[in-house]
Structure formats: structure tokens, C-alpha cells
Amino acid sequence: MDNLNLDQHISGQFNADLEELKTQLLEMGGVVQQQISDAVDAIEQADSELAEKVMVIEDDVDNREVSLDENCTTVLARRQPAASDLRMVLAVSKATRDLERMGDEAQKIAKMAIALNEEGQAPHGYVELRHIGDIVEKMVNSTLDAFARFDVDTAVKVARDDKAVDREYKSAMRELVTYMMEDPRSIGRVMNIIWALRSLERIGDHARNIAEHIVYLVKGLDVRHTSVKEMERQVKDA
């Protein structure tokens, strides 16, 4: 944490408490990252067993969220942190919620994988799913890396990548809607792909949220609801 210049504490235990919060967050992020990867693979490989694994892991993600929330509350109550220390606790708390919601979206993708196996594979949309899935998985990985290193530049890049995901998602939607209009018999199965793509787009949104938390943590800037260009400007001027 030295590279963030967090407040120096009389209590070494306080430093240990903050470091533990960070460690637990990154561990939770690793679980969610694998959950997302497995969910996309489950659709591509028509693997219901892998999809079921993703859904079971969601219980672990939920438990980690509850545990981290409790630990953040304990640190706030016992240490009454200020300045960068307080931002650290708040950033972990907010990022934890976003990770849990990513897990929820991964679970939804897994449900779509099972539905496709039961109803028959969709005739279109798998290329788009893999393409957007790859971008989103890299975003999540970069976000966790940025949090681990308090790297604002990487956090800003994640925000830029989210805009790319939005563009790819809209393009995929246009193609899939056109396909369903041409072949109405495919609507039910293609809709499962559409819902999976929608979940990936939301995971990208949550990755951007965490990137914004990192900017707040390191720079003390609230960049929510700002454009990427404005975020870059504020970070540069800070």
C-alpha cells in the first residue's frame, strides 16, 4: 500500500486490516473472473455440467460479499479511518458489490447455457458471444490488476474498453434481431444468446464501476457519470 501513500498508523494492525480487505477483494475477484470464463465456455461447448458449476459457485461469491461487508463495517467502527484510509475501505465495499453483481450475471449466462442444451443450440450468435466475452474477461482481469497496483492508467483504459463493449453489443443486437426476423423459428434459441450477451454487457459496466472506484481511491476524484474523455482529463489534472 505504500505506493498509494496511505496514512501512517500508530497501529500496525490497522495496516494489516486494510491489507486484508484488499486481499479478500482480489480473491473474490479471482473467483468471479473464473465464473465468467466458465459461463461463456459452457455456452460455447454446450456443457451443462460446467454451467451447473458456475451456478454453485455463486453461493461462494455471495458468502464472500457478506464477509467482506462485515469486515469493512468492522474496520470503519473500530478504526474510524480518514482520508485515503477511508477511501480504501469505501472502495473495497463498493467494488465488492460490483463483483457480486458480476457473479449474478455469470449465473444468468450459465442458465442460458442450460436452456440452449435443452432447447437446441442457436443457429447464430456464438461468434459475437466469444468476441464480447473475450473483451469483458480482459476488462475484469485488468480491473483487478489495477486495484492490486493502484494503477489509475489501467483503470481509465478499462473505462475506454467498456465503450468498445457497448458498441460491439449494439452491433451484435442488430445482427441477431435481423436474423430472427428472417427466420422466426429461431427466435427462442437466439434469445438465449441475446440474454447472455446482455449479461456480458452488464459485466462490462460493473468492471467500469470498479475502475471508477480505483480513480476515487487513488486520486480522490468522483468520476461517476462522466465521459471517458472527461475522466481522462480529470485524472491528468489531479
UniProtKB/TrEMBL annotation:
Coiled coil: none annotated. Keywords: Cytoplasm, Phosphate transport, Transport. GO terms for cellular component: cytoplasm. The keyword Transport applies. The keyword Transport applies. Pfam families: PhoU. InterPro entries: PhoU, PhoU-like_sf, PhoU_dom. Its main location: cytoplasm. Residues 25-112, 129-213 form the PhoU domain. GO terms for biological process: intracellular phosphate ion homeostasis; negative regulation of phosphate metabolic process; phosphate ion transport. It is found in: Cytoplasm. Homodimer. Plays a role in the regulation of phosphate uptake. Belongs to the PhoU family. This is Phosphate-specific transport system accessory protein PhoU.
